[in-house]
Amino acid sequence: MARNYGAAKLKNHIHNNAPGTLGAMGRLFDVSESDFNKALLGDQTVITKIADMARLSDTAKANLPKALEVYRKIIETTGDINQAYAELVQLTQKHGTQTLKAINTSKTGEQRFKNEMTEMQAEHVNATTAEATRHAQRSSLIQISGATADLMAIAKYEADLIKASNKVPEAQDAADRAYETAVTSALWTNGSEAKTDRIPKPNYSRTAGISRVGQWFRNFMGI
Predict the structure, then answer these.
(1) What are the residue boundaries of the structural domains of the chain, listed by start?
(2) Residues 150, 221: contact at Cβ < 8 Å?
(3) Given CA atoms 135, 138, 144, 146 in this order, what sign does their dihedral have?
(4) Which long-range contacts (CB under 8 A, 24 or more apart) does 21-27 make?
(5) φ/ψ of residue 13, rounded to 5
(6) Would the pTM of this model clear 0.70, i.e. be above it?
(7) How do residues 160-213 score in pLDDT, each as one tens digit?
């Protein structure tokens, strides 16, 4: 309950001289000139309000150093940690690219090496196979060349023999006629005493042996 002091009042000279500052006090610290006057005049509501603010201030002031120290540590540590993470990110970005390039280059080189080894092995196999094939073909050509030469010789001999054999009937006929003439002449001269058995009787015949030799050679060579 407000007390009655009649027309009595206390002169406030600051209100008119620094009104802006007193107004800023309320805005900045949440304590107004009006509440201050009311508290001076014993307004219990205002006294309770500012007394609670005073007790809160005491508690805050008592805890302020430790709270400030803790907050300072939290803020500084958080800054240091994030600065460290930022440096880690920068290092990873800088050297990560370099490392990945090195890894990819190594992988590419490894794959190229494996491919070249495979290609070299394939080339070796191909070269070995080609050489074996060339040798086999060359050997076969040499054998065939020799066989061809032999066959040509045999064929020529057979051809010459056949050519000569074709003359056998004519030679045989001529020889037979000569033999008959000789025998007849001997008979005309000596009659029954003619020694016709002493007159040689020619006998021309073809030889088949060379043909059998040629066929054996062909069979042996698989021709």
Answers:
(1) 14-87, 167-221
(2) no
(3) negative
(4) none
(5) -85, -20
(6) no
(7) 656 666 666 777 777 778 878 887 887 787 777 777 787 777 676 544 444 555
